[in-house]
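Ticket 4471: requesting a sanity check on a complex prediction with NAI. Repro inputs:
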Amino acid sequence: MSDLTSKVIVVTGGASGIGKETVLQLTAKGATVVIADFNEDAAKQLASEVESKGGNASAYKIDVSKGDEVKQLIDWTSDTFGTFNGIFNNAGIGLVKPLLEMDPESYHKVIDVDQHSVYYGIYYAAKKMVELGVQGTIVNTASIYGSVAATGSFNYNAAKAAVVMMSKSAALELAEHGIRVNGVAPGFIDTPILGESPEVKAALAEQHMRGELIKPEKVASVVTFLFTEEASAVNGQTIPVDDGFLSFKVK
Ligand code: NAI
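Returned structure tokens:
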């Protein structure tokens, strides 16, 4: 895969899980990465780890559900590093509740963090790239639950389905500027978002072809590919990284 040296890429939710592994892989390929996360301590720790391996990363504290903060993040990145080539809109949360208990607060919490943040990331990133004349790349984290409904996930299903369509719609409108937009749809990935319960984790793992949870680095490698030149003909897609989940019916 081609090198990403001289590319400046923002990773939201970069301090943990899928985002963290993506930060490690992008920086290993030479990219300068801004680790944008609510959890500033973890972001700083990861930035130090990257620096100790000879890579370039900076921590940036943000709440991605706030549009003005996302705009400031993009402005800061381009002002600090002199350019801006890409964003991985990845930060997300889950909040499982039956639909009949899905009060407006619970609904909006997930929609704000998992859906509106992706709009802010696409909108402000694309405007900056066009302003700079950069033919950049945007990648968004959707989910298998953007395609299939899951119990207790009305809010999450709605947000992730929106992310799938935002990737297509943005790709369509930004193609004339040379900007590509894609997504990944992870299956059940072994990260803190799944919680601690071994029973829950085992039940999720069973739904994969190999009966195991997927390691976050397996999602990160697809995301990293999407940022490279080799993926220049991939546009408007959301690529499942789900060990077959969307392709078969569990017994
Ligand atoms: P994680 O919990 O390990 O990482 C999420 C990161 O996002 C954390 O560092 C957290 O501090 C950050 N974050 C949360 N809310 C934020 C906010 N408002 N502003 C800034 N940062 C915020 O979880 P994971 O699994 O790495 O999740 C990453 C993405 O992958 C999410 O969008 C999630 O919905 C998605 N996903 C995860 C799956 C899984 O099984 N782990 C499956 C499908 C999708």
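Notes from triage: The longest strand covers residues 180-186. Leaving this open until the requester confirms.
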